[in-house]
Amino acid sequence: MSEAQTQKAPGSDEIVTLIVKHRVKAGFEAAYEAWLRNIVSVAGRTEGHLGVDVIRGKNAGLDMFTCVLRFCSTEAMQHWLDSPQRQALIDEAAPMLADGDQTEVNPVNEFWFAPLADAASPPPRWKQAVVSLLVILPHTLLVPLLWGPLLKLNAFLSNYLVATFLITLTIVVSVVYVCMPAATRLFAPWLTASQPREHLESNANSPR
User: Fold this and answer.
1) Which of 28, 47, 119, 141 lies in the 20 to 30 Å Cα band around 201?
2) Among the CATH numbers 3.30.565.10, 3.60.150.10, 3.30.70.100, 3.30.830.10, which is that of 5-111?
3) Other CB atoms within 10 A of residue 94 CB
């Protein structure tokens, strides 16, 4: 089993993402997809697992599958990485993989802009800021309006701290799990447009 490369040591109390990249050998696509459905199901039953997204692309002419697994803590993620179930499944998939089992670990907020098109570097900060603004601004305008009628029904809920907590929690959950992943996929061509073409090509063909 390959070792996860930790880019930043997240604390045990924050959500982390495990990014798994598999480049599939030609002719093994159907078998790999069946295997992938199985391991996603197994991972979903692991304690601390919060969800998974699968992004399919191409790399050097082969199908590339990027799986983004979210866990409630570093400990939960490491438990899955070290589990006998995952080890057995990775051993089963090994003959189908061109470059083996590639894993990375990121705090959840860093992943928003990390895996786009297998680029060697993340998008410019100003582009990240623009996409973040487009996602967060509507939430700050609409979520308080949606919560408003409910907060007025109860004196406890209308307390400033309680109301602020509920509104903030709603925004964070929606942004992290729904809107930001969708936005990064939607704006992926624009986010990576400024990167030199030859840089992307050399990265795609480099050994992994």
Assistant:
1) 28
2) 3.30.70.100
3) 10
Residue in the block written with tokens 């939960």 = 76
Q: What's residue 72's pLDDT?
A: 87
Looking up tokens 């697994």, which residue turns up? 69
Which pTM does this prediction carry?
0.52
Q: Rounded CA gap, 158 and 151, in Å? A: 5
Span 84-88, mean pLDDT? 95
For residue 120, the one-letter residue type is: A
Name the range with the highest mean pLDDT among 46-60, 73-87, 99-113, 188-202. Answer: 73-87
Sheet holding 102-107, edge to edge: 5-6, 102-107, 16-24, 62-71, 49-59
The H or E element containing residue 35 is helix 29-44
For the chain, what are the domain ranges?
5-111, 115-208
